[in-house]
Amino acid sequence: MAHSEIKRPAVFIDRDGTINEQMGYINHIDRFKIFPFVPDAIRTLNKRGFWVIVVSNQSGVARGYFPISLVHKVHEYLREALKREGAYLDDILFCPHYPNGKIPEYSKECSCRKPRPGLIRLAQKRFPIDMESSYVIGDRYTDIELAKRCNLKGILVKTGYGLGDIEYVFPYLDIKPDYVAVDLKDAVKWIITQNAR
Fold first, then answer.
1. pTM of the prediction?
2. Catalytic one among 16, 90, 139, 183?
């Protein structure tokens, strides 16, 4: 992928629970429901010149719950839905692996399963990213841990697993989000104000 070498900040966005309703495993396209505020939030980032990159764990592939083709189908649907609203994603990166899976080719220890930094390292190879001004947005403690491991600012949204993780998981962790947002739109609003400083 050829891009001009001018570095731009990126916003790495988790998928399930952040972009779409948390349904457990999205094992059918009908279970993929995009939150209504998402196209506007992503369009705002597009206009401000951020790279917008989805980073998602999809271990259901390794577990044998659905084929990798379904993940691609869902992402095609997501891209089309955003396009209709004048928004776009620069990339969608996902980890299909799980150490104790049922599907041999995907059942392994990997460096791309969040909170490991593999997906963000891959994005850095593909895009000229200004890491110092970049962010991770997600609904789980693993997204915030990913942010910390990569020295990025981490924003936790209250959609998906967010509220539960705030109440039951974060009190026992050494890591804290840089900001707790109502949803993706609120997270983007916070990013814009941070970058305006």
1. 0.97
2. 16
